[in-house]
Design brief:
This protein has 480 residues and is α+β, with helices and mostly antiparallel strands. It is built from 11 helices and 17 strands. It has 3 domains: 69 residues; 191 residues; 156 residues, no CATH class. The radius of gyration is 24 Å and the shape is globular.
């Protein structure tokens, strides 16, 4: 009897709690909407800097309160089931809201390069720049000025801007090529090089860069629904990645320019839906949240105040030099193939000791999951590396693995699972030690790289590079 009474009491309390949450959400939602409308109206009408700041601060206050409530266990569970738990990107939301007036062109038109990264050929921030768009924000209004593929972009022999000495030691002048500008995982480097290359070629200064990849675009496509191209193809959130990064290479095997144009047409069709408002705001928010979660959406601003806000969050894509205990493993394609579409990664980060001079082990297992390269287009199988090993197998893929320790740490030891070749070479980027390993995998081959670093400051974190196949990461931190 007592047990039945307790269950009944718990059920009633739960219903009352849910009812209170619902009342709060409705009331809070109405207030937040008014602050969103206020910020939007001030942007469109050319409101003063004071009015814009007040609107942004009011909206930021709403978000802070909402995220605090959303962090409560019962609320968090409900929001997670509903697919609207934005707590994991709370820092990104706050930064974007505070930066919104400037980013959206409140003080004058802002023009951005949108770089669509092809993650089938890995670079530090994701993949090579395959296509682009130039968009303009003016008082909150978005317009698309130009789209195109990398076929029209002209590269240089030397870097268009001065870069730090450690950058030059690792990458040389190779990043002067558009497709290599984002070779470093530090997104602001790539963004600045792209902007300088654009100005050299077109004589136009840009205000920033936004990077996305086909996976992020597929998440956004959930908000617009399927798009039908004039050529008849129907692109959906489910087939966009395979259509652009796998099937298109076969369909346009003998017309590479047509393949690049195919991606541009998808971009144009998606942009048209977004600019005309033909999308679900909730699903767009969900798609952006997932893209940010997976480091597939990055933003750089030439405005120093805005950039300082962005760099403190994952959306800024920075390789931070401040005290932390962050590790990462980065793949850089060196054979110019598109075989990173078939590359899987499993990474384990484990604390070995917790003293001041403690150690952390990073184990990276990479595997070429391709069964055979026979039948794949030659463009996908490209081997443009200068020192090819003898006895190449169709579908064999060469790349560099960069394993980073935290700032001001040191690499203690390194090894690899194969018996041939050295464990790698030691480099440094932005005060971080980095183990660089040259790997060449035939289909179904795998390699494990193990690096032990001195620990950094705070709990262990890991930043995952966004490629086609999501990296599987486990963290075993006994020092928390």
């Amino acid at each position: 009897m007592a047990r039945q009474f307790l269950l009944l009491w718990v059920k009633r309390v739960s219903i009352i709690l849910l009812a209170l949450i619902l009342v709060f959400v409705i009331a809070f939602g109405l207030r937040t909407k008014s602050h969103v409308d206020s910020l939007s109206n001030n942007l469109r009408s050319g409101g003063s800097a004071t009015e814009l700041a007040a609107s942004a601060n009011a909206l930021s206050g709403d978000v802070n309160l909402a995220l605090s409530v959303a962090s409560l266990p019962v609320v968090k569970q409900i929001l997670s089931v509903a697919g609207v738990n934005f707590v994991p990107i709370k820092d990104e939301i706050r930064a974007v809201i505070e930066a919104a007036p400037t980013l959206a062109g409140a003080d004058g038109p802002k023009r951005y390069l949108i770089a669509f990264q092809n993650s089938a050929e890995a670079r530090g921030t994701g993949g090579i720049l395959g296509a682009f768009a130039i968009v303009k924000f003016e008082r909150g209004k978005l317009s698309v000025e130009r789209t195109g593929s990398n076929a029209i972009l002209k590269s240089l022999e030397t870097l268009p801007i001065v870069m730090p000495a450690d950058f030059k030691r690792i990458y040389g002048d190779d990043p002067a090529i558009w497709q290599n500008s984002n070779i470093s995982p530090h997104f602001p480097y790539g963004a600045k090089i792209w902007m300088a290359l654009w100005e050299k070629q077109f004589g136009e200064k840009l205000d920033g860069v936004i990077a996305v990849d086909p996976s992020a675009l597929s998440y956004i496509l959930r908000s617009t629904g399927p798009i039908k191209l004039k050529s008849g193809e129907v692109i959906t959130s489910k087939n966009l990645v395979s259509e652009t990064l796998q099937k298109a290479y076969k369909r346009y095997e003998f017309d590479n320019l047509a393949r690049k144009d195919f991606l541009v047409r998808i971009i144009n069709a998606t942009a048209s839906r977004l600019v005309s408002g033909q999308y679900s705001k909730l699903r767009l928010a969900q798609g952006l949240k997932r893209g940010i979660d997976e480091n597939r959406i990055l933003v750089f601003s030439s405005d120093t105040r805005v950039e300082s806000l962005l760099e403190d969050t994952s959306i800024g894509g920075a390789l931070s030099t401040s005290k932390n205990n962050e590790f990462r493993a980065v793949i850089i394609n060196t054979d110019a193939s598109k075989l990173d579409y078939y590359l899987s990664r499993k990474t384990q980060v484990k604390s070995l000791s917790c003293s001041e001079n403690g150690e952390v082990r990073v184990e990276l297992l990479v595997k070429n999951i391709l069964t055979t390269g026979i039948g794949l287009p030659s463009y996908v199988l490209t081997r443009a590396d200068k020192t090819k090993p003898p006895g190449l197998v169709s579908g064999q893929h060469r790349f560099l693995a960069f394993v980073y320790g935290p700032p001001n740490s040191s690499l203690i030891s390194a090894r690899r699972s194969t018996t041939f070749g050295s464990a790698g070479r030691l480099g440094e980027e932005r005060d971080r030690p980095v183990l660089v390993v040259d790997i060449d995998l035939a289909p179904q081959q795998s390699e494990k790289v193990t690096a032990v670093f001195s620990r950094g400051t705070g709990p262990i974190t890991y930043h995952s590079q966004p490629l086609v196949i999501a990296e599987k990461v486990t963290i075993d931190d006994k020092c928390r």
